[in-house]
Design goal:
By secondary structure, the chain is mostly helical. 76% of the residues lie in helices and 0% in strands. The termini are far apart.
């Protein structure tokens, strides 16, 4: 009787062989899941254990210049990713036209869209540095479950989607997320410039609102696909919808804890104490 491990390996090999694409397999990290899983394991080990241990008796690194350059890069790269959607005039049309009706699409456009998703996947790897910077700056309190889960699962899920489930649905999701990242990393860039720019960050509270709105728009889009009778893969729709729903819950819970509870606590403190706490 075959062992469970041998059955899993056999089924995986059959799945990989059925999804073999010479062009995609030639792209970095795409031929095998080993590199992306190794990156994920190394990331989790460093930010949750090794990093905090190494920094326990060391002063925090001053990474101001690095972080400014990193955030500027993220803004520009996210803008570039957003722009790729409009590179082919037919890409947007395919999302709500040809693809929705189940009509065949141009092979050149399909390859281009897959390459866009690959660049998006690479951006998810680069974004793991967000957490690494927290650790090196000894801001371990910001290495929350939401933060680590969000970065880790986005990288892994994007690889899985590109390798096994790729279709046009991910293009709109990636475009919307990249657009939000333009706003988000612009905020981080301004914040990294120094205290003299704090007056331009009055919209901090709305950052989470922007992310929540993003997830709501994604869910509306995903639920509209079967409602409109689109002949796109329902498994991909459910794949995205499930992940987006989890993010929506986690970010809403974060917002509730970070802002709703603070507002209640502030209302129970004398006015003088509130003003003093804002100055600290």
């Amino acid at each position: 009787m075959p062992s469970l491990m041998s059955v899993v390996i056999e089924n995986y090999n059959e799945l990989v062989e059925s999804k073999t694409d010479p062009i995609m397999d030639s792209w970095l990290f795409m031929k095998s899941p080993v590199p992306v899983i190794s990156i994920l394991v190394a990331y989790l080990y460093f930010v949750l254990k090794l990093g905090p241990q190494l920094m326990a008796n060391r002063p925090a690194f001053n990474l101001k210049g690095v972080i400014i350059a990193y955030n500027a890069y993220q803004v520009l790269f996210s803008l570039w990713l957003c722009g790729q959607v409009f590179y082919f005039k037919s890409v947007i049309f395919q999302l709500f036209g040809q693809s929705c009706r189940g009509e065949s699409t141009n092979g050149e456009v399909n390859t281009f869209m897959a390459s866009c998703v690959w660049w998006y996947f690479i951006s998810k790897i680069v974004e793991l540095l967000d957490t690494v910077f927290f650790v090196l700056r000894k801001k371990q309190s910001q290495v929350t479950f939401l933060h680590v889960y969000h970065h880790g699962i986005m990288m892994l899920f994007t690889w899985i989607y590109l390798k096994f489930l790729s279709d046009e649905q991910g293009l709109f999701i990636g475009f919307l997320n990249s657009f939000v990242h333009v706003i988000m990393y612009s905020y981080y860039l301004i914040a990294a410039l120094g205290p003299q720019y704090q007056k331009y960050l009055w919209w901090k509270k709305y950052m989470t609102w922007i992310q929540l709105t993003q997830f709501c728009i994604m869910l509306v889009y995903l639920f509209s696909i079967p409602m409109m009778g689109c002949k796109l893969s329902k498994s991909v729709t459910f794949f995205f919808a499930g992940n987006v729903a989890i993010f929506l819950y986690l970010f809403a819970d974060f917002y509730r804890k970070a802002y709703t509870k603070k507002s209640k606590n502030a209302s129970s403190i004398p006015n003088g104490c509130v003003k003093a706490s804002k100055l600290e």
